[in-house]
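Why do we bother with a discrete structure alphabet at all? Because it lets us treat a fold like text: something you can write down, compare, and reason about line by line. To make this less abstract, here is a complete entry for Hydroxymethylglutaryl-CoA lyase. Read it the way you would read a sentence in a foreign language you are learning: slowly, and without expecting to understand everything at once.
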Amino acid sequence: MTDVPAVILCECFARDGLQHEPGVVPAAAKAAMLERIAGCGFRRIEITSFAHPKYIPQFADAEAVLAAVRPRPGVLFKATCPNPAAVKRAQEARARGRGPEEISFLVSASEGHTRKNLRRSRAEQWENVEEMARLAGADFTQVGTVSVAFDCPFDGPVPAERVLEDARRFQSLGVTRIALGDTIGSATPPRVRALVGLLRDALPEATFIAHFHDSRGTGLANCVAALEAGLRHFDTALGGTGGHPAGIAYGEGFTGNVCTEDLATLLEAMGVDTGLDLDRLRAAGLAAEALLGRPLHARTLRMGEAAHV
């Protein structure tokens, strides 16, 4: 895996996609799915979370899943770390021989979402992030996620300057991979182009990642807008799974991530290289449906060979 594709998709099914599933998927089944996903040609794969099992039982098996999935040259397996204790778990897993290559931290760009989602103030969360970045040091590739980068369900529209402020703060900590979270799926292509343009002009050394939700059916359009504005990294999930839970007050129903199968098919039709094997990707999408026991949201999965046209 020496040739770098024009666009890199990070497959998030095994973490973001499963986080709010009502049933716990066995570690062996997760590992089998992750091996299938890796076989599609992904360069970045979200493998697990080191969240406390009391709060998210789905990832009580984080270390077991990591141990069961073999590392691959050129592939970064990413684990979410919500607090300093999680970073220490990632380091301990690495010391035992199989930790993640990449870890991610989260801040919310609004005070309201920070207090509702993280149960602390933005100032307190930034203290957490600073400690996590210090602890991680050079052990991992670090990713900083700015949640509610466009709109907050509690505070309303988020100023682009606030997102830039958070991105600058991440960069000051040495975190130069920065994901932009459209947490409630309210972004539009013009807003995406404007925000991405502002950030790339101000921080040309940073690598920005689009993490868009498809709550309003605009996920693919927003990805194309981000691509046109210069982004080359996108977070997606098989079948459009994941996102925040629909049951919470601001869920508004469907909240999934951008669907991997559909975005990869669109990019191929546009002549944009993703480095992915689309036949294997669609097989992985069918395996994800079988694992969860229900049809998911990939439109191109129903088209078979016609999806290539």
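What the structure line is telling us, in plain words: The two ends are 27 Å apart (CA to CA). The first strand starts at residue 8 and ends at 11.
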